[in-house]
Design brief:
The protein is an alpha+beta fold. The protein is 21% helix and 29% strand. The protein folds into 3 domains: 104 residues, Immunoglobulin-like; 137 residues, C2 domain (Immunoglobulin-like, Sandwich), CATH 2.60.40; 236 residues, 3-Layer(aba) Sandwich (Rossmann fold). It holds the Pfam family C2.
Length: 532
């Protein structure tokens, strides 16, 4: 909207060029170009860019605008109209996945604004729940009736078939009713509604030499008509058909029900307005070492971030795109506080217990450095208070409009294991996830136990409802070459990768559906003024 006008006799002819940035060397690479729209300062570009989206990765984008003056593909031959920088997460995390930002890059000029919208490609996230029965199947067993089961195959581009589902065996009947089963539309027909689906009927034998009863073909489109005369299929055995003149069929298979379920994704909730609230908790126990010494994990090196700062930035910079107000509560634990030296296991890093919020990741970093100067590192290492702190907030909004992520950065050995387990088991019923980053050389066995990937965490005989803890040791990510950018991107990727699934598991268990996204933006209709 309102692009600069660079043409003397007519309006600009704009094009938009999208660049993505490599994580390591920060090099911008051209990703694609829109079409050129002639003679307008308010273009609505049609060409879309299709990109891979990962919640756990930061994808920097740059949109450059040019006024195209000739047929040359070389951009330096055209007039630059400005640019806009953002991340893919910023677009996706905006209300309705619609981001509006000013175009910058030409000093002293207003370059207009750009509106970017994102939508997830619904490459068939549907699943189908269907049920079949059969009648008068051929008898294959000498002593009893048949033990029938069905095998489903989808056809491939080259005409071959791939097995995609087997039903259970129903024993000793020629009129079986199989249990309903759920399969993704992708697996069933690769999302192509007219592709052939081949279904074979077998008689189960204990030795694995199942007898072929017959087969039939259908398609997703036919099946989707549901229970009707169209979905009664004759089971044909081609060998028998070839030999016997009077052969009619080897029985029939009938579709009893067909229900389409659309799987909702993490982005459906984000688009519907669910906010992710990010809270940081930092370990201020004495085992970290004196912050004024270079050996300390809290050492305030004027030239580079310490491990706490690096972990905080790596995770925070990605999550902040999904939090509209960018205000993050930042807590500390295990320190003695001024003026009286009382030990606290949940103090506000900004010194304001009534309002522990810091503005953006930079605000959190600033409060962290300020705290290091004013508090005395002490102990013990108690996690339960900060977990309960976030859980109190999470317990007050269980309607799916908010989800809480707590990042705990610690040097390790935990003192209140029993209380922490109890807190995590309680929190597993709430809309929250916990990320623990272990810094320093300690043994982190206790953390692995909290992670619950191997054995689900329990407390006093109660097991956690969902796995909500993700632990990683910081030392696994330290790059020997000193290139922290890549290693921190890997750290963020590993700790954040489980969040969308943990988020969805909460919503599923609670039966919470995403809110509808706000209506898409429609450009105002320009009224043509006629001169009289």
């Amino acid at each position: 909207r309102n692009l600069l006008d660079r043409d003397t006799f007519s309006k600009s002819d704009p094009i938009c060029v999208l660049y993505t940035q490599a994580i390591g060397n920060k090099e911008w690479r051209e990703f694609g170009r829109t079409e050129v729209i002639d003679n307008t300062l308010n273009p609505d570009f049609v060409r879309k860019f299709i990109m891979d989206y990962f919640f756990e990765e930061r994808e920097n984008l740059r949109f450059d605008f040019y006024d195209v003056d000739s047929k040359s593909p070389n951009l330096s031959k055209h007039d630059f109209l400005g640019q806009m920088f953002c991340t893919l997460g910023e677009i996706v995390g905006s209300q309705g996945s619609r981001l509006e930002k000013p175009i910058v890059g030409i000093p002293g000029k207003k370059c207009g604004t750009v509106i970017v919208t994102a939508e997830e490609l619904g490459c068939c996230r549907d699943s189908v729940l269907m049920q079949f029965c059969a009648n008068k199947l051929d008898k294959k067993d000498f002593f009893g009736k048949s033990d029938p089961f069905l095998v489903f195959h989808r056809s491939n581009e080259d005409g071959s078939f791939t097995i995609c589902h087997k039903t259970e065996v129903v024993k000793n009947t020629l009129n079986p009713v199989w249990q309903a089963f759920k399969i993704s539309v992708r697996a069933l027909c690769n999302g192509d509604y007219d592709r052939t689906i081949k279904i074979e009927v077998y008689d189960w034998d204990r030795d694995g030499s199942h007898d072929f009863i017959g087969e039939f073909t259908t398609s997703y489109r036919e099946l989707s008509r549901g229970q009707s005369q169209f979905n009664v299929y004759e089971v044909i055995n081609p060998k028998k058909k070839g030999k016997k003149k009077k052969y009619v069929n080897s029985g029939t298979v009938t579709l009893l029900s067909f229900l389409i379920e659309t799987e909702v994704s993490f982005l459906d909730y984000i688009k519907g307005g669910t906010q992710i609230n990010f809270t940081v908790a930092i370990d201020f126990t004495a085992s970290n070492g004196n912050p004024s010494q270079p050996t300390s994990l809290h050492y305030m090196n004027p030239y580079q971030l310490n491990a706490y700062g690096m972990a905080l930035r790596a995770v925070g910079e990605i999550i902040q795109d999904y939090d509209s107000d960018k205000m993050f509560p930042a807590l500390g634990f295990g320190a003695r506080l001024p003026p009286d030296g009382r030990v606290s296991h949940e103090f506000a890093l900004n010194g304001n217990p009534q309002n522990p919020y810091c503005h953006g990741i930079d605000g959190v970093m600033e409060a962290y450095y300020r705290s290091l100067k004013s508090v005395q590192l002490y102990g013990p290492t108690n996690f339960a208070p900060v977990i309960n702190h976030v859980a109190r907030y999470a317990a007050s909004v269980k309607d799916g409009s908010q989800y809480f992520v707590l990042l705990i950065i610690t040097d390790g050995v935990i003192s209140d294991m029993a209380q922490t387990k109890e807190s995590i088991v309680n929190a597993s019923k709430l809309p929250m996830s916990i990320i623990i980053v272990g810094v320093g050389p300690a043994e982190f066995d206790a953390m692995e136990e909290l992670d619950g990937d191997v054995v689900r965490i329990s407390s006093r005989g109660r097991f956690a409802e969902r796995d909500i803890v993700q632990f990683v040791p910081f030392r696994d990510y330290i790059d020997r070459s000193g290139n922290h950018v890549l290693s921190m991107a890997r750290l963020a990727k590993d700790v954040l990768a489980e969040i969308p699934e943990q988020f969805l598991s909460y919503m599923r268990v609670r039966g919470i559906k995403p809110s509808p996204a706000p209506p898409p933006y429609t450009p105002p209709i320009h009224v043509l003024q006629t001169q009289i």
